[in-house]
Amino acid sequence: MAVNSKLRSAFLWRMLVKALTVRKGRAAIAVASIMVGAAVVFALTSLYLDISRKMSEELRAYGANFFVGPAASSPDRRFDLAAYRKIVASIPEEKLAGASPFLYGVVRLDLGNAVLAGVDFSGLKAISPYWQPEGGWITVDFDERNCIVGRGLADKMELTVGKTVTVFNRDKTFRTELRVKGIVETGEAADEQMFVNMSLAKKIFGTGERIDLAMLSVVAEGTEADALAARINGQFPGVEAKPIRKISQSDGRILDKIEGFMALVAAIILVITTLCVNAILSAMVVERTPEIGLMKALGADDRAIVFQFLAETVLICLVGVGLGLLVGFALAQVLGQTVFSAWVSLRPLVVPLTVGISLVAAIAAAVIPIRSAIGVVPARVLKGE
């Protein structure tokens, strides 16, 4: 029995290989069709699984998306700087694009009053990468001799880059001279403000280790921003954290549209691939009608015919999918670099998913050709009709 089984398997394998090699032109076209479909499915699925994270990272270039301030029930309009530092430390490094505390107050300059903000300049630069100060950024945290001024305030106070301005606190118990290191135009309220390091702002306002608010730029997918806010609010009493809805909702709408578009493209490519394979297999069945009739005349039943064509279809599909995975991975990298300037990760889940979808499409394409093969009448074929 074992010998017969081996002989049968060898015979079937030989029939399978011969059937495809004799019609290698059509078989190659079928393999190429499935390869294209599998490559597109693999590339778009890989990009789809990475897109939320990469889009969120890209959108962080448009500003902070997370706010932390004193709780509404708190009698104090400020909260501890230590709490801010603990909150920042609790966020995974790969999820935090940048963060800065803000301490606001009114100061007197040479030509009038102005709003001064104490910030962490390295964090401010990270959450506001679109700020391009004329002159330059303040680059060290202990710099208490320079400031950055908004364009509107600079025009009102007749300030230019390199000019020195005298700053008094409200009761004139603190005085310092600052050099304008940069002038920034943002189109926002920041255009009317002056920015200094947090250490200097604390000295000017005498607030101790207290800040007004903090702005964070967080890489978050789906409801992660809401979950982060809930966790912070639960762990830090007296603090209220919340995503900035306008930006978060814009992120979500953009992601939904792109993901929907990618799913539609993948579906269309799959349909086209299925139709191409169906046309090729149908042509192969027509071409092999005499062969099928002879097989039936020699005793082959419908199950043997179905098995023969299914085996050929699966073999073509596996070869096409194997090539498609390689091409799809390369295509995913091209798309990732072109759209996000980043490499797309290889996710093991995508491989069986692509194989499964491609097999379903190939078998669906083979249904009509196999039904045609089963319908071949040996007597009519042998008569040459």
From TrEMBL:
Keyword field: Cell membrane, Membrane, Transmembrane, Transmembrane helix
InterPro entries linked to this entry: ABC3_permease_C (IPR003838), MacB_PCD (IPR025857), Macrolide_Exporter_MacB (IPR050250)
Protein localization: Cell membrane
MacB-like periplasmic core domain: residues covered: 28-233
Residues annotated as transmembrane: 27-49, 261-285, 305-332, 344-368
Membrane disposition: Multi-pass membrane protein
Glycoprotein among keywords: no
Keyword flag Protease: no
Pfam families in UniProt: FtsX (PF02687), MacB_PCD (PF12704)
Domain ABC3 transporter permease C-terminal: 264-374
PANTHER family on file: ABC TRANSPORTER PERMEASE YTRF, MEMBRANE COMPONENT OF TRANSPORTER-RELATED
Similarity field: Belongs to the ABC-4 integral membrane protein family.
Record's protein name: ABC transport system permease protein
